[in-house]
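re: ur question from earlier - yeah i can do the single chain one, its not a big deal. heres the input i used so u can compare w yours
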Amino acid sequence: ILCTDQNLTDLRVAQLRLIFTLPPQLSAVPERLAYIEWFRPLRSPDSQTGLHIVSRSTRDGHPFAEVVPLKCIIRSIHLVPKLGSGIAKTLNPETVLEKASEFYINLYVDFHLFYLFRNVK
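and the output i got, formated as tokens:
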């Protein structure tokens, strides 16, 4: 999930965990909210693949999580685990997002995403 503060230079990657609204008695804000866990800001593209690499952002050893308006989420993306020379036996399709430490942002499965990232250094 890419979130932004209004422009493409502020793109950030986050994992969407929950979409919710607060009951009227707790908030005058009727909009939908999203609970997300952030990844670290984008680094320069990997020299071998040309793909950006992201890893989870943490605070005091815990995921850096935040509640944001759902409207700040602009699209989904495809993350590919950066596995190195071997694949741990604990990794499987259900756990890879939780267990892998770094991910490539796969630009090639989505032409629009490829276009957006062409100038992000």
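DSSP finds two helices and ten strands in the chain. not sure if urs matches, ping me
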